[in-house]
Amino acid sequence: MSEKKQIWQDGLDTLLARLVDEELSTTDTKRLNEILSDNPAARDHYHVYMDVHEALQEQFSIPDFTALDKVVTPEPEPSYRRPILAMAALVMIGFFINFLVREPAQPPVAEKRAEVEPIAKVRSLSGSLIYTGDRGIVRKDLKEGDSLEGGTIEGMTPDAWFELEFFDGSIVMISGNSMLTFSDDGQKKLRLKEGGFSANVNPQPKDKPMLVSTRTALFEVMGTRFSVDTEPTAATLRVSEGRVRATRLSDNLSVEVPAKHRVVASQDHELTPERLPDSISIWESRLERGAKGGNGDWVPAQGGEPAHLRAIPYTIDAKIDAQQRTIYTISTIVSRKDSPPVILKSGSRIRVQGKMDTPHAIWFGVTLRSADGDFAGHFQIIVPAERFQPGETFDVTLNTEEYHLDPSLKKWAAGLAKNPFGLKVGSVWCHSLWDSVGLQVSKMEILAPEESNE
Amino acid sequence: MELSDEFILELTQAQQRLLSYIYRRVANRDQAMEILQQTNLVLCHKADDFKLGTNFAAWSSTVAHYQILSYRTSLSRDRLVFTDEVMMFIDDRENESEMREEVLSHLRFCLKAMSSDNQILIKLRYAGELSMEQIATKVGKKVGAVRVKLHRLRRSLRDCVQNRLQEKQA
Lengths: 454, 170
Fold this sequence. Notes:
The complex is a heterodimer of chains A (454) and B (170).
Chain A: H1 3-20, H2 26-38, H3 40-60, H4 69-72, H5 81-95, E1 120-126, E2 129-132, E3 138-139, E4 147-148, E5 151-155, E6 161-166, E7 171-175, E8 179-184, E9 188-200, E10 210-213, E11 217-221, E12 225-231, E13 234-241, E14 244-248, E15 253-257, E16 261-266, E17 274-275, E18 283-284, E19 297-299, E20 308-310, E21 312-315, E22 326-333, E23 349-355, E24 362-369, E25 375-383, E26 393-399, E27 404-405, E28 424-433, E29 440-447, H6 449-452
Parallel strand pairs in A: 9-10
Antiparallel strand pairs in A: 1-4, 1-6, 2-3, 2-5, 5-8, 6-7, 7-9, 8-9, 9-12, 10-11, 11-14, 12-13, 13-16, 14-15, 16-17, 18-29, 19-20, 20-29, 21-22, 22-28, 23-26, 23-29, 24-25, 24-28, 25-27
Chain B: H1 5-13, H2 15-26, H3 29-45, H4 56-74, H5 84-91, H6 96-112, H7 116-126, H8 132-139, H9 143-169
Helix pairs in contact in B: 2-3, 2-4, 3-4, 6-9, 8-9
């Protein structure tokens, strides 16, 4: 490297660091322009630096679609397209979890805002959750009994679980990687941005049904038990008791969904209530077809390596874990809208194939739901590091009889399942605690008891 | 403004790419956000001009390009980071979209090769979006030391990514 290049390169690196950290002075700006103007190589250098900076943002930061605000929340119009657009922006947050956009500068608050009244309280919770409340204040330290004024609750890991009780006694619950916004200004409004939730709703005031919106559908609830799961192009409503009116937003078509029925609101599915399907007891992940929902960084098959999910990190907030340790987690959704619910039976076994760079104890688990869609518990088993070899594929078959309730749910054990059998499997998952060990999974299966006895 | 679902998806998916495109041309995050908002509005107004299946990335970048030029004319010189000449030089870059994916995949590899302490520092800056002062408090070091360390880490990541890109080309 020539001496001249060395000089501008060192200077440029420092200037670029200040630029991305927003600490560029007027003198720095002038010098930056001189270097970039005089040296074509410096411009390449600039682009490479920005490539890395933006890739870091994309890799780590929380998505923000505020630049769509002007498009999605202008003056009210009686159009169903606008809510679709708004919801698309919000739902896409789930898709682009690695995206970065910094919050735009906010104008100073001119006057103190009125205190916001709480509308609900936290009934129970576990796992990693983030709550964004009034004025965008983010909390990761929710506790049982906390009063909330409305906002967005987000389950960050497969083992997350959150139950909210409105002041009229209606209960909503999310589990796993889900994101739900809730409000109550005399009429309860929920917006499911990602994942799923279930609810047990007490009778609502006349003409003010609970409104549940997803990107593709709007559900009006007067008082009933039901669950909703959403995907980018579809929302599935399952009604256990009572009736719910479902409206598909793309064509405004509505149907009444009675108890023990479900409806799928999507472009490629007829909007007709169907009886809830019978259950099955076998299942396998088909990762070669891509990853739908769940947690993990999907990698397609390449070379001799099958398609797989790589564990992704979630760092626990300092208020919950002073050491701010990280869980490295993988999960896949099992019971989906387009297939019968998968039920664990006594004797069912769970088979997981994968690999890890460094042997480490792994937590294998399932998230279970009752037939109504209510959260029924996380059951898990810990497999010691000795069962794994560095860099070699592993193939473990786990006996669900040995699974036990997640100890963090002990406080609520009385209201949860005593064992994992006879319950719907929401998701299967695995994770390593605190250490990134290069965990990846290429296949997960639920084997029926008769197969396991062979 | 009647927008199809497909258009909405394209637009939403394009947000990060467009922000990156604009940011590196104006080098100011708040200005980039303002331009992105304007770009989104123009894209929605011109939605009928876009034919599904054609290149949304190229079309939206062109719109963003003109929004940048328009925005620059509306600001006083002292609020712009780059001169017109430098902006023109920087604007002249091909294959930006393709590069993003490639750089991201190399970056993941390079991050993995870092020590866990260094990874934590990078995460605090990017995932936590903490200020230098906040990071310094968290890791128990002086602000200057954190600034220098982050500078070195970015440089080392850049070198790693660049080496891998060059290896691939070779």
